[in-house]
Amino acid sequence: xxxxxxxxxxxxxxxxxxxxxxxxxxxxxxxxxxxxxxxxxxxxxxxxxxxxxxxxxxxxxxxxxxxxxxxxxxxxxxxxxxxxxxxxxxxxxxxxxxxxxxxxxxxxxxxxxxxxxxxxxxxxxxxxxxxxxxxxxxxxxxxxxxxxxxxxxxxxxxxxxxxxxxxxxxxxxxxxxxxxxxxxxxxxxxxxxxxxxxxxxxxxxxxxxxxxxxxxxxxxxxxxxxxxxxxxxxxxxxxxxxxxxxxxxxxxxxxxxxxxxxxxxxxxxxxxxxxxxxxxxxxxxxxxxxxxxxxxxxxxxxxxxxxxxxxxxxxxxxxxxxxxxxxxxxxxxxxxxxxxxxxxxxxxxxxxxxxxxxxxxxxxxxxxxxxxxxxxxxxxxxxxxxxxxxxxxxxxxxxxxxxxxxxxxxxxxxxxxxxxxxxxxxxxxxxxxxxxxxxxxxxxx
Length: 445
Prior knowledge:
This protein is of the alpha/beta class. About 40% of the residues lie in helices and about 15% in strands.
C-alpha cells in the first residue's frame, strides 16, 4: 500500500533503534483489549489487527467482520496505527495478533531482535497456498531461509507520461521513451525554460515524488544486497551508473533551479501535483495513482499513458523490469494465541479476501487466483500494472537487519549526487566500507 514515501521510511529507521528501550507501560497503553483472549465468561475471543495504513478504516473493519461472523470471534481493527505505537507494542507484552505494514522494510531488523514469529509451521498447518503467491512478492518476507511475513496485496511502479505535453513538443503521444537514454532525450524536448532561465515545465525528475533507486538499480542489473542478504553491493559499476544517469536530469538545468521548480508544485494528493497539473511531463509512480484518490478523482480529464519504466539500451532483455513491494502481514512473537492469529492470517491470504481488499484500494493482488477476478480489469490503466506485477521480470528488494542503515546512507548519497553534483564513486566506496562490517556482525549472530 502507498504510504508517505521517504519521510515515513526515515521515521521507521530512526524509531527502530529505540525498540529495546520502549517500556511495557507504553506497550499496554498502545493497545486495549488483551491480544488473542476472550472477555468475560461466555464472550467470544477477541483478535486484534493493527494496520499502519488505511484511508477507510470502516471498510477494513467491515472486511474483518466477515471473519468474525464466520468464526464466532470478535476482530478489532485499528487503522491507521501510528508508528510509535507499533514499535512500543512489538517490544511489549500485548502486541496485536496480526500486524499489517505498508512494506517489509523493517521486518528483517525486527526478526533479528526476536520480535516476529516464523510462519513456516503455521503455513503448512493452516493450508496457506504459497504456490498461489507471486514469487517476487513472496520473497520479500523471507529471511535466512524462513518466512516471517506474507504479502497481502502489493505495489509496483511504472512510467507515466502526459500525452498532451507530448503532442505540444512534437512527440508521438502513443510512443513513450523505450530506453533510459531515450528518456533523457524526451526530457530535453519536454522541458521549458523562460527568458530569465527559470524552468516553467520539466520533462522528467528521477526522484519525484520520492526516490526510486530500488527500480533503477534493478534495471541496471544489480541491487544493494546480494540475494541471500550477506553482502553489501554499493561499490559497484551498476550503482555508480544508475546514480550518474539520475544526475543528468539535474545537471542539465542546474540542480538548484530544478529543486526550486519541483518545490513550487502542489502536494502529492492534490490536483496541483506536478504531473496532474501538467508541470512535469513524465514520472515514475505506483499503480494507486490511477485510482479515484489521485488522477481518477483529482484530474479525471488528464490525457496520459502508463507503461514499464524505460530500460538501458544495452539490455533490451530487461524490458518490463519492476521491483514489487508493499503490504505484508506478520504475527508478532509476543502474541499469546499464535494458532488463532495464524488462522486469521490464513483467511486474509485466501484469493477472495485478497481480491476484495485490493480492488477496494486500487492495489495489486498477491494471489494468482485473486488476479483472475475481472474487477481488476475494469480500469484499463490499472491492467498495465497487473501485467507488470506478473511479468517474469518482476523482482523484489532484499532486506537485512541493516537495511535501515543502508537506506539512510543511500538517501544521503543520492541527494549529494543529484542535488549537489557529487561524484558517486567515492561516496559509494565509503558507504561500502562502513556497512559491510555491520552486516557481517549481524549475519554472524
